[in-house]
Amino acid sequence: QVQLVESGGGLVQPGESARLSCTASGLIASINTMAWYRQPPGKERELVANITRSGLTEYEPSVKGRFTISRDNAQNTMALHMNKLKPGDTAVYYCNAETQLEFGLGVLDAWGRGTLVTVSS
Predict the structure, then answer these.
(1) What's residue 34's pLDDT?
(2) Residue 104's pLDDT is what?
(3) How far is CA 63 from CA 24, 76, 80, 86, in A?
(4) What is the pLDDT of residues 5-15, one digit of tens each?
(5) What does DSSP assign to residue 32?
(6) Deepest in the core among 2, 33, 80, 94, taking most CB within 10 A?
(7) How far apart are CA 51 and CA 108, in angstroms?
(8) What are the DSSP calls for 56-89, one per residue?
(9) Which candidate, 39, 22, 9, 30, places its Cα nearest to that of 111?
(10) Who's near 37: CB < 8 A, 6+ residues apart?
(11) Exposure pattern of 68-87 as b/e (b: 16+ CB <10 Å)?
(12) What is the CB neighbour count within 10 angstroms for residue 63?
């Protein structure tokens, strides 16, 4: 019903920047809150940042000031600009969207498959 596709992962050196993108498609009437989560190796998935439809944002303390989340409501896309990356940012990053489906099908908490970001020299 809804597909989320992340892109932009890869190998990055410490201190460098990277940009992740998420594109949503399918039976989408509108998208409420969108978010980026990450799962470091051997650890549980954690919230990195979220953004409401109106643009209000929240960040996990360790990324505040380094990461910026943004979205384009018309295009159903979201981005995560990551600056001053650290080895501790290494993780699989997942896109999440609270999606209002068309045709009265309700609300779906949709997830992408994830994209790996490795921060290493």
Answers:
(1) 98
(2) 85
(3) 24, 24, 11, 10
(4) 999 989 999 99
(5) E
(6) 80
(7) 17
(8) -EEE-TTTBTTEEEEEETTTTEEEEEE-S--GGG
(9) 22
(10) 45, 46, 47, 48, 93, 94, 96
(11) bbebeeeebbbbbebeebee
(12) 22
Mean pLDDT value across the chain: 97
Total residues found in the chain within this entry: 121
Q: How many other C-beta atoms lie within 10 A of the C-beta of residue 24? A: 21
Task: Using the structure block, give the residue that is written with the tokens 């940012």.
Answer: 89
Please write the tens of the pLDDT for every residue from 49-84. 999 999 999 999 999 999 999 999 999 999 999 999
Residue 20 has a CB neighbour count (10 Å cut-off) of: 23
Which tokens sit at 45?
């998935």
Mean pLDDT of 21-46: 97
> 84-118, pLDDT tens digit by residue?
999 999 999 999 999 999 998 899 999 999 999 99
- Which residues have C-beta within 8 Å of that of residue 54, sequence separation ≥ 6? none
d(CA 22, CA 44): 21
